[in-house]
Amino acid sequence: MRLVKARDTRPELALRKLIYSLGYRYRVCDKSLPGRPDIVFKGKRKVIFVHGCFWHRHDGCKMTRFPKTQREFWANKFLENQARDQRSFKKLEELGWQSLVIWECEMHDTVAVQHRVEGFLNA
Ligand SMILES: [Zn+2]
Fold first, then answer.
1. Sign of the CA dihedral running 7, 12, 13, 17
2. What contacts 106, CB < 8 A, 6 or more positions away?
3. pLDDT score recorded for residue 97
4. How far is ligand 1, taken at its centre, from the CA of residue 29, in Å?
5. How many angstroms does the Cα of residue 56 sit away from the middle of ligand 1?
């Protein structure tokens, strides 16, 4: 599990750096908001989540391999994670916040991520 854990924060840091370099200012991990979004743009009422493909089950992504042991445990765990995500998005929406999810694997293409982030923030 060490590999998965170590990977967990790196995409988030990379994204924060990228957004900062674009000139946007944000708050990090606002615990007062549903789902504790990773990056918060208070004035715009927009949040960005950086999701690990494994934990949040990125659809069709090859980083989403299923563990070979304790399958039932993992299946339940993943269902819980996904349900929690959906609840958070819904709650945020009800509070008037817009959410964007950037997947861990997307960070390999920073140009594409930059376009998505800018499109989201300037909309
Ligand atoms: Zn992915």
1. positive
2. 112, 113, 116
3. 98
4. 21
5. 9
Ligand 1 centre and the CA of 50: distance in Å?
11
Q: Smallest Cα–Cα separation from 94: which of 33, 27, 32, 18?
A: 33
For residue 17, the SS3 value is helix
Instruction: Give the Å distance between the CA of 32 and the centre of ligand 1.
Output: 27
Q: Is the distance from CB of 106 to CB of 49 less than 8 angstroms?
A: no
Give CA 63 to chain center in angstroms: 15
| Structure token digits, residue 83 | 């349900």
Q: What is this structure's pTM?
A: 0.88
Angle in degrees, CA 42, 94, 11, rounded to 5: 50
**In angstroms, what is the span from residue 94 Cα to ligand 1's centroid?**
27
Alpha carbons within 13 A on the beta-carbon side of 121: 20
Average pLDDT of the chain to the nearest whole number: 91
Indicate if the pLDDT at residue 95 is higher than 70: yes
